[in-house]
Write a structure and sequence with these properties.
With 152 residues, the chain is an all-alpha fold. It has helices at residues 3-9, 15-45, 49-53, 67-76, 80-97, 116-129, 135-151. The termini are far apart.
């Protein structure tokens, strides 16, 4: 089967049309992730400093899952790691936004010394040791770890 006949079989008339549709799908996916992130910022931004230490308030989305659910999800579908990490970054951004003015000046959510892969491993390890906790609690622990990282 040639590439052209393969594209016709999928409903595409040429490779450029296929690329445009793929690009549109990626833009839509990114738009959805950004919308979720903004919603998380709004929810997390309404917290007080005390609530940021304990995530027992209303948490929605992936963060409401237990650590056990997080472990099961990423074990069965590795792509979900990206979604959980995106949720975590949005949640921590909301925690930063709720801090008093200037308090977040020295905090980096993606420091060179503790990149996103290291952060994902932290969350996986933390959840392995604390299966009953909510994923948002693991993210709050990661936030504290990043605060320490920012001070070094």
């Amino acid at each position: 089967m040639t590439i052209k006949s393969s594209l016709r079989h999928t409903g595409f008339t040429d490779a450029s049309e296929s690329a445009r549709r793929l690009s549109r799908r990626r833009v839509r996916h990114l738009s959805i992730q950004m919308t979720v992130g903004m919603l998380l910022l709004a929810v997390a931004g309404s917290w007080s400093g005390a609530e940021a230490q304990s995530t027992k308030g209303k948490v929605v989305g992936l963060g409401a899952a237990t650590c056990q659910r997080f472990k099961d999800d990423v074990k069965s579908n590795a792509i979900l790691r990206r979604d959980y990490m995106a949720w975590a970054q949005g949640f921590m951004s909301g925690m930063l936004a709720s801090q008093p003015g200037g308090a977040d000046q020295q905090i980096n959510l993606n420091p060179v010394t503790y990149d996103l892969v290291s952060q994902l491993h932290f969350l996986e390890d933390h959840c392995s040791q604390n299966s009953a906790l909510r994923f948002s609690d693991a993210v709050a622990a990661l936030f504290q770890r990043l605060l320490k990282e920012s001070k070094t």
